């Protein structure tokens, strides 16, 4: 069987779409004649410290000969070209969305990430994109040859149709609190609908970007919506299923999505969508 070292930064059990995708790959690859081995990288990516880059270099340079390196884009796009060039193993990059297109980063860091990701992708033998939109973006804006790109969309498992609530209307937004998710835009929009009877639950980590989380908490309070909007933080699968089941509408103001897994999950459950159209959404 083909041996693959799947390099993933941080805690693969984290409740995000990207990590769920990684877990599913580890589960399903053996059925395709591939033996995957999780290779853990520091959790500071995509903004690694010098010490974490040294640690990553030692990890990647120690891979057994003949093993394919499947590198999650959350780390791969932030690796210096010189580090990637030292890796002797064949490299396959998994890209959910380009790191430099993330919102809320400064202009200098944005430019650094765009440059490092383009350089790293140039050294990859193959690239896996999680949507056709991301594949087209990589070809058009990062110079990746289309014939080297494969698209592997996440898909969804069969699920029971959500029952909803109806009164008050239950709105649900899912995703770690970060500038890209544009929860501030959502809250400001909903403040104009205060005369209507609705409740919003935002389910997603409050620890990914502490500044964005605190800013969102202040905004909810200043708009007088503390009794209407609940910040649930990261939730497990069971709690998320319960939130979906009582949801009437899934709302997403995200500025960019590489695929938009929560949108597909909501559709699978028959939950109505109100969403922006950033990226692949």
Textual characterization of the structure:
With 281 residues, the protein is of the alpha/beta class. The chain folds into two domains: 2-151, Glycogen Phosphorylase B (Rossmann fold); 169-275, Glycogen Phosphorylase B (Rossmann fold), CATH 3.40.50.2000. Helix content is 36%, strand content 21%. The protein has a six-stranded parallel beta sheet with strand order 2-1-3-4-5-6. The protein has a five-stranded parallel beta sheet with strand order 9-8-7-10-11, with helices on both faces. The radius of gyration is 20 Å and the shape is globular. The model has no long low-confidence stretch (mean pLDDT 95). One of its GO terms (biological process) is lipopolysaccharide biosynthetic process. InterPro entries: Glyco_trans_1, Glyco_trans_4-like_N. This is Glycosyl transferase, group 1.
Percent helix: 25-40%
Q: Could you state the order of secondary-structure elements as H and E?
A: EHEHEHHEHEHEEHEHEHEHE
Q: Strand content of the residues, in percent?
A: 15-25%
Which CATH architecture of the largest domain would you pick?
3-Layer(aba) Sandwich
Mean pLDDT: 95
The number of distinct helices, counting runs of at least 4 residues, comes to 10
Head-to-tail CA distance between termini: 36 Å
Unreliable runs: none
CATH superfamily of the largest domain: Glycogen Phosphorylase B
CATH topology title of the largest domain: Rossmann fold
The tally of domains stands at 2
Read across the widest sheet, the strand sequence of neighbours is 2-1-3-4-5-6
Shape call: globular
Sketch the major β-sheet: 6 strands, parallel
| Radius of gyration, whole Å | 20 Å
């Amino acid at each position: 069987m083909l041996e693959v070292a799947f390099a993933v930064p941080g805690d693969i059990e984290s409740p995000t779409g990207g990590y769920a995708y990684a877990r599913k790959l580890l589960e399903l690859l053996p059925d395709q004649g591939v033996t995957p081995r999780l290779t853990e990288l520091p959790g500071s990516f995509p903004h690694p410290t010098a010490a974490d880059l040294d640690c990553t270099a030692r990890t990647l340079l120690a891979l057994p000969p003949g093993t394919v390196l499947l590198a999650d884009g959350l780390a791969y796009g932030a690796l210096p070209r010189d580090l990637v060039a030292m890796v002797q193993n064949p490299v396959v990059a998994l890209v959910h969305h380009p790191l430099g297109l993330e919102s809320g980063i400064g202009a200098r860091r944005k430019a650094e990430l765009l440059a490092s990701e383009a350089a790293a992708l140039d050294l990859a033998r193959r690239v896996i994109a999680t949507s056709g939109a991301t594949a087209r973006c990589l070809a058009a804006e990062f110079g990746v040859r289309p014939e080297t790109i494969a698209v592997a969309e996440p898909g969804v498992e069969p699920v029971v149709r959500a029952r909803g609530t109806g009164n008050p209307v239950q709105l649900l937004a899912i995703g770690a609190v970060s500038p890209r998710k544009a929860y501030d835009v959502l809250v400001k929009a909903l403040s104009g609908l205060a005369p209507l009877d609705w409740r919003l639950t935002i389910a997603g980590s409050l620890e990914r970007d502490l500044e964005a989380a605190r800013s969102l908490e202040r905004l909810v309070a200043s708009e007088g919506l503390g009794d209407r909007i609940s910040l649930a933080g990261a939730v497990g699968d069971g709690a998320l299923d319960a939130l979906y089941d009582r949801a009437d509408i899934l709302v997403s103001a995200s500025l960019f999505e590489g695929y938009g897994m929560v949108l597909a999950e909501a559709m699978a459950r028959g939950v109505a969508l109100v969403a922006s159209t950033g990226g692949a959404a």
